[in-house]
Amino acid sequence: MDIVLNQNVEIKNTELKKVTTEIRRASANVIGNTFKISALIARVDRDELYIEDGFSDVFDYVKQCFGLEKSSAYNLIRVGNDFIEEVKKGNITSYETLLEHGSKDYSISQVFKMLPLGIDKAKELTTDGVITSDMS
After folding, report:
1. What is the DSSP string of 51-82?
2. Which of 38, 43, 69, 114 is deepest in the core (most CB within 10 A)?
3. pLDDT per residue over 74-109, tens digit each?
């Protein structure tokens, strides 16, 4: 998944501008921040933050601002809605999967592969040790 940062898209909605800036910052380290990007894009979709700026839908917003195709955006939204939780430790906020994992969380590729299972079945399989974050 390659994110193209299009700096030429003008955003007027204050909240959408704030979220877009966060996504752009997180994009600098895609591997470490894909869960955050998923959660933030899911928020844009859930709260319909794109409407005020004239985007037809979240997919139009993601395509114009980041160059992501609809299928990639759809998977990121599903991951953000179903598999990710925001974890606050003092002043630090991180994003982790809701799945059972040790010190090493799952990669975004691993989570994408679990999407067809749904969160409940994925949780069951990870809790039982059938799927672990060490698997490829």
Report:
1. GGGT-SSHHHHHHHHH---HHHHHHHHHHHHH
2. 38
3. 999 999 999 998 888 899 888 888 887 776 778 788
